[in-house]
Each structure stands twice: as structure tokens, then as C-alpha cells.
Amino acid sequence: MAWLTLTISAPADQAEGLSEALLDLGALAVDILDADADTPQEQAMFGEPGEPAPHLWPHNRITALLEEGAQPDAVVQQAARAIGLEQIPAYTTAILPDNDWVRMTQAQFSPIRISERLWIVPTWHSPHDAAAINITLDPGLAFGTGSHPTTRLCLRWLDQNLRGGESVLDYGCGSGILAIAALKLGAARATGVDVDPQAVQASRDNARLNQVDAQFFQADQATPQPADIVVANILTNPLKVLAPLLASLTRDGGQIVLSGILGEQAADVAGIYGQWFDCGPPTVEEGWACISGKKR
């Protein structure tokens, strides 16, 4: 059996109402995503310290999963009327074939070679190099599998710069991959912080899977201790807001590593962090930048 996907663009004041109306009209599932994702206008869904939590993004993309025989025109019209819209929003549809989604998802994720000695290996694969440092990690609800350039940039920085015995703080830990990698690369202590409770739980699960003693907390439930190395792979706007906090969490003489930054935004971010850090030139991969600096 195939399925029908229905996608509607909506502002913040309409997105939640439309999604609820679509569910009431028989949609099997509905999700809301940032329509500005991967652009300079992208916004974090969860509020960071010092910044009010947004209810929804300014521009939202609503995707509903319908049975193949559904009539999208009628569904969209009824959903719009249910929330009092006079104008029917524009929408697109696509056919989603019925597949073995588990097998297809697994086929998309093979072991990822980060460096000469560091690999990310899904649980359904055997390591290519048993003697390498292998991080066992599956794709899940939290960001950070090693497949995105921003994660690879941070992992390579840790691989090249950790000397052993350091304390590491991963702010915005996602899957916990950076804290886990830091411990496997020789850090003495690694802590992760995230505003998303699902990310914190995923990180704890991944730490157990990799048999490392990384500690993970929600940002509003614990105050991290200053660390020798602070890594933040988030997005440009949260990184700007968090600059004073991340600087205070980096020990004097310590280092900061920032990613989730589009290449054209790197100079702006480096200028802000230059108040506390001597930043080197960014490392760029596939249009994404990683900035590092030493605290004065």
C-alpha cells in the first residue's frame, strides 16, 4: 500500500491549528519543520539561556501522511475552514511507496571514516578496522551521526587536538557523539548539555552503548563546570546568544570549537567570540564552517 504526503507552508500563527485540523480529518501523522532550515534564517526550536523560547518558527512546513485514496483538495479546504482561514493555503502532494523502511534506512547509513583512526559504525555493521577507535551509533531522534559536515568537522578537531587528560564540555550535545568521541580519544572527563530532553536521553543511551562514562544534563537542570575544551555544534543564531555563557564555561587558556555555521557567517561569529578568544581561520566543508580559538 502506498501513502500520500501533503505539504503546506504556514506562518507561526496558523501552523499548529492546521496540524491539529489535519489530524482530526484523518491524517495518520503530521510533523512541523522549520521552512528556513539550512539557511541563515534557521532558528533553534528550543529556547537557549538568555533567549525566549519560540512557540513555532516564523515559517513552517507542515507535512501530513494520508491514505492513498484521500482527496487532498477537500482535506486542505476543511482544515483551513476549521481554523477560520478564508484563503486556502497552497500545498503540494507526493506519493510515498510502501517499503521496508527499516531496511532502507539501514542501507543509507554505512560506517563513516572520520580520520585515519576514528570511525562511526552503526550497530548493524561490523567495524571495517577493529583496531581503530570505533564509535557505535545509530541514527535516531537526536542530531549527530557523523554524516553531517558540522559533526565531522568537530570530530576531526577533537582527533587532531586532544592530547589526553582534558575536560570537555559539549554544549548542545544532540546524540552525545562529541562527548563520547572525546573520551575515546583520551579526555579525562566529558559532559554534555542540551535543551532537548530526548537528546539528553539519546546521549545517555549512546554512552552506555559505547561503554564510556560521559555525563549528560538538560540545560535548565544543571550548571556545567568550566572545561578545558568547549564544543558547540549548534546554529549561528544560538551561538551568538550563547557567546558570553560559552566563554564563561571555557577555562582561561582553554579552547572553544564552534560549528553549525554556514561559511558566509563564519566571520560574524568569529568577531563576536573574538572578545574572549584568539580565533584561527575557519575550516570549511561543504559550505559549513568550524571555528576554534584559545581563550585569553
TrEMBL record:
Subcellular location: Cytoplasm
UniProt GO BP: methylation
Catalyzed reaction equations: L-lysyl-[protein] + 3 S-adenosyl-L-methionine = N(6),N(6),N(6)-trimethyl-L-lysyl-[protein] + 3 S-adenosyl-L-homocysteine + 3 H(+)
Enzyme Commission number(s) of this protein: 2.1.1.-
Entry keyword annotation includes Transferase: yes
One Gene Ontology cellular component: cytosol
Residues bound to S-adenosyl-L-methionine: T151, G172, D194, N233
EC category: transferase
SUPFAM superfamilies assigned: S-adenosyl-L-methionine-dependent methyltransferases (SSF53335)
Keyword set, alphabetical order: Cytoplasm, Methyltransferase, S-adenosyl-L-methionine, Transferase
GO molecular function, one term: protein-lysine N-methyltransferase activity
Domain of life from the UniProt record: Bacteria
Pfam families named in the record: PrmA
Family annotation (NCBIfam families): prmA
Family label: Belongs to the methyltransferase superfamily. PrmA family.
Its job: Methylates ribosomal protein L11.
Protein name from the UniProt record: Ribosomal protein L11 methyltransferase
Organism: Candidatus Nitrotoga fabula
Lineage of source species: Bacteria, Pseudomonadati, Pseudomonadota, Betaproteobacteria, Nitrosomonadales
